[in-house]
Each structure stands twice: as C-alpha cells, then as structure tokens.
Design goal:
Elements (H helix, E strand, L loop, with lengths): L1 H22 L7 H12 L1 E3 L22 E3 L6 E5 L6 E2 L13 E3 L4 E4 L13 E3 L4 E2 L15 E3 L6 E2 L14 E3 L4 E4 L13 E3 L4 E5 L12 E3 L4 E3 L14 E3 L6 E3 L12 E3 L4 E3 L2
The structure holds 2-acetamido-2-deoxy-beta-D-glucopyranose (11 copies).
Main location: membrane
Protein name: Leucine-rich repeat-containing N-terminal plant-type domain-containing protein
GO molecular function: ATP binding
Amino acid sequence: MDNICFFIVVVTLVLLKCTTLCSGINFFNSSIDEDALLAFKATITSDPDGILANNWYANNASVCYWIGVSCGIKHQRVTALNLSGFHLRGTIAPHLGNLTFLRSLDISFNNFTGILPDELSNLRRLKEINVGCNSFAGEIPSWLGTLHELQHIHLNNNTFTGNIPQSLFNNTSKLLTLDMGYNFLGGNVPQEIGKCIDLEDLRLSFNHFNGNIPSEIGSLVNLKILYLSNNSFGGGIPKQFGNLTSLNILYLDDNKLTGELPQELSNLAYLEIFSIGNNTLIFC
Ligand SMILES: *[C@@H]1O[C@H](CO)[C@@H](O)[C@H](O)[C@H]1NC(C)=O
Ligand SMILES: *[C@@H]1O[C@H](CO)[C@@H](O)[C@H](O)[C@H]1NC(C)=O
Ligand SMILES: *[C@@H]1O[C@H](CO)[C@@H](O)[C@H](O)[C@H]1NC(C)=O
Ligand SMILES: *[C@@H]1O[C@H](CO)[C@@H](O)[C@H](O)[C@H]1NC(C)=O
Ligand SMILES: *[C@@H]1O[C@H](CO)[C@@H](O)[C@H](O)[C@H]1NC(C)=O
Ligand SMILES: *[C@@H]1O[C@H](CO)[C@@H](O)[C@H](O)[C@H]1NC(C)=O
Ligand SMILES: *[C@@H]1O[C@H](CO)[C@@H](O)[C@H](O)[C@H]1NC(C)=O
Ligand SMILES: *[C@@H]1O[C@H](CO)[C@@H](O)[C@H](O)[C@H]1NC(C)=O
Ligand SMILES: *[C@@H]1O[C@H](CO)[C@@H](O)[C@H](O)[C@H]1NC(C)=O
Ligand SMILES: *[C@@H]1O[C@H](CO)[C@@H](O)[C@H](O)[C@H]1NC(C)=O
Ligand SMILES: *[C@@H]1O[C@H](CO)[C@@H](O)[C@H](O)[C@H]1NC(C)=O
C-alpha cells in the first residue's frame, strides 16, 4: 500500500513537473497539429480524388494516421507532410506554420496558387521544402534564409518573379539542393550563393537571370549538377569553374555568354554532360 502511494506521489510529481515544463512549448499537444491541418484542408478548393475529404477528419483517428502525414514516435507531433501529386488546388493557409515539428514538407505536383505565407518561417526544424510543379507566385521568400536546417529547397516549375534575395544565403550553409528552374526570376544571381559550400545540385535554368555568372559558384566544390541554361547570362564562363572537380552535369546553353572556353574546364574529369550551345563563345 505504501509502495502504491509512493508510486502515485512520484507519478503525480512527474506529471505536474511535465505540465509545468512542457506546456510552455506545447510539446505533447497534437491538437495544435490537428487544428493546423484542418485549417490547411479548409483552403483547398479542389480535391478531385477525395484524398483529404475521405481521410482528414476532426476528432477521428490521430493526425498521425491521416494520409500524407507522418509523426515522431516519441512526441506524436507531425514531422512530415507529403501530399505530392494529390491533384489539390487552392492556397496555403498560414496555419501550416503551426506545424512547428515539421522536418519535411512536400506539396509538389499539385495546383496550388498564391504565395508561400510568411508564417512558414516558424518551421524552424525544416530540412526539406518541395513546392515544385505548382502555380505559386510572388517573390522568393527571404525568410527561407533563416531556416538554417534546410538541406533541400525545390521551388521549380512555378511562376515566382523578382530577384533571388541575397538574404536567402544568410544562414543556409547546410543546403545540398537548390532548384529554382522554370520560373520568371531575373536580375543578378547574388554572389552570396558561394556561402552554400555543401551544395551539390544547383538548378537555375529557364528564368530571366542576367549579368555575369558569379565566379563564387566556382567555390561550390561539391557541385555535381549545375543548370544555368536558358537565361540571359552575359560575360565569360568563370575560370573558377575549373575548381568544380565533382561536376557531372553542366548546362550553360541558351545564354549570351562570350569569350573563350576557360582552359581550366579541362580539370573537370567527371563531366558527363556539357551543354554550351546558343551562346557567342569563341572556340580556338
Ligand atoms: C492544446 O492546444 C489547443 C489549441 O490548439 C488548446 O485549445 C488546448 O488547450 C491545448 N491543450 C493543452 C493541454 O495544452
Ligand atoms: C473516422 O471516420 C470514418 C468516417 O466517418 C469512420 O469510418 C472511421 O471509423 C473513423 N475512425 C475512427 C478511429 O473513429
Ligand atoms: C513524397 O511521396 C512521393 C511518392 O508519392 C515520393 O516520390 C517523394 O519522394 C516523397 N517526398 C519526400 C520528401 O519524401
Ligand atoms: C492542374 O490543373 C490543370 C487544369 O487546370 C490540369 O490540366 C493539370 O493536370 C493539373 N496539374 C496537376 C499537377 O495536377
Ligand atoms: C495557428 O496559426 C494561425 C494563423 O497563422 C493563428 O491565428 C493561430 O492562433 C495559430 N493557432 C495555434 C493553436 O497556435
Ligand atoms: C518543368 O517544366 C518543364 C517545361 O514545361 C518540363 O519540361 C519539366 O519536366 C518540368 N519539371 C518537372 C520536374 O516536372
Ligand atoms: C540577412 O543578413 C543581413 C546582414 O548580413 C541582414 O541585414 C538581413 O536582415 C538578414 N536577412 C534575413 C532575412 O535574416
Ligand atoms: C545561423 O544558424 C546557426 C545554427 O546553425 C545559429 O547558431 C546562428 O545563430 C544563426 N545565425 C544567424 C545570423 O541567424
Ligand atoms: C531554350 O533552349 C532551347 C534549346 O536550344 C531553345 O530552343 C529555346 O528557344 C530556349 N527557350 C527559351 C525560353 O529561351
Ligand atoms: C579556383 O580557381 C581559380 C582560378 O582557376 C584559382 O585562382 C583559385 O585559387 C581556385 N580556388 C580554390 C578554392 O581552389
Ligand atoms: C538562344 O537562346 C535564347 C535565350 O537566351 C533564346 O531566346 C533563343 O530562342 C535561342 N535560340 C536558339 C536558336 O535556340
């Protein structure tokens, strides 16, 4: 009996302590995630396959069992959302920014419109964001540069406009993939891109970028894939590209590049695809 009382006291103390400690950050409160996902569902205007309509219900199974949702084992909070190719149409509710345990967000291959709301800047744990192949518009959000765990950013095949904000590279040193291809971006590519030293895959093709190709891209020595084609880049190919010795694929075609091919490019021993057509380069 004494033992049981002692046990109850200890358990109560632990629970009290946890409520005090944990409530501040709502660590175990998965109803925050349910509210966020239902608010997200509410701004979906078309769900032709009925995927969310038939799976995402309030006060039903835990959100962890909803289609496209994954949770952490210990805390049962939403850590991944993958709605890729669900044929959804609509806008992104700002409430998505309440999924603060989210590490991976993949809503690619849908028909989402509108902007990426600023509230998504609350997703401090985000390692991967894929919004590719939708109809998102507006500028590239500069808050992406404050999410310092980000490894993969896919913004490709949308209708983003404006310049790449310099602050995108403020604190994204862990980036491995940056895909902004097939948008309506323009202006110069910021030289700060050279700070993303781990970058392996950089795709900027099919935009309206102009000015010189920043020579700082030549310091991204882990690059395997580099797409810069179909823009309006001028000037010469930076000789620093000769330092990109891991490069497998290099697309520079359909620009306004001039001058000679730098001899340093002969260092690129692993190059499998090299496309430079439709420029005004001099071949000696
Ligand atoms: C959990 O969060 C909801 C808001 O989504 C709030 O209404 C509720 O009081 C919270 N519960 C606890 C135990 O903190
Ligand atoms: C959730 O709702 C669906 C449809 O109303 C129902 O078939 C299912 O049994 C419910 N699941 C739980 C766990 O309540
Ligand atoms: C999302 O699911 C699709 C398959 O439905 C898969 O190809 C893709 O890799 C997944 N995304 C992530 C980030 O895991
Ligand atoms: C987007 O909607 C159009 C119809 O307006 C459709 O043809 C297209 O397949 C949709 N794209 C995706 C990825 O669902
Ligand atoms: C979730 O986000 C919305 C909009 O950003 C906000 O109004 C709401 O208070 C948040 N809810 C919770 C439970 O944090
Ligand atoms: C992006 O759009 C282009 C042109 O429409 C298309 O060729 C390409 O396959 C698309 N990319 C993806 C990943 O679907
Ligand atoms: C990026 O850093 C610069 C200074 O280095 C600062 O002025 C700017 O506000 C930062 N931007 C963001 C989005 O944090
Ligand atoms: C950048 O991220 C690191 C963690 O990777 C953090 O310690 C640091 O405060 C951040 N710096 C800025 C300027 O946000
Ligand atoms: C992109 O490159 C292709 C292949 O050379 C070319 O035919 C096409 O006109 C270019 N498109 C744009 C939009 O620049
Ligand atoms: C990169 O290449 C340039 C010119 O080819 C050279 O001067 C420079 O030292 C190289 N940088 C690194 C980090 O290897
Ligand atoms: C050459 O590239 C430009 C884009 O810089 C494009 O507009 C044009 O159609 C391309 N010409 C050919 C013959 O591919």
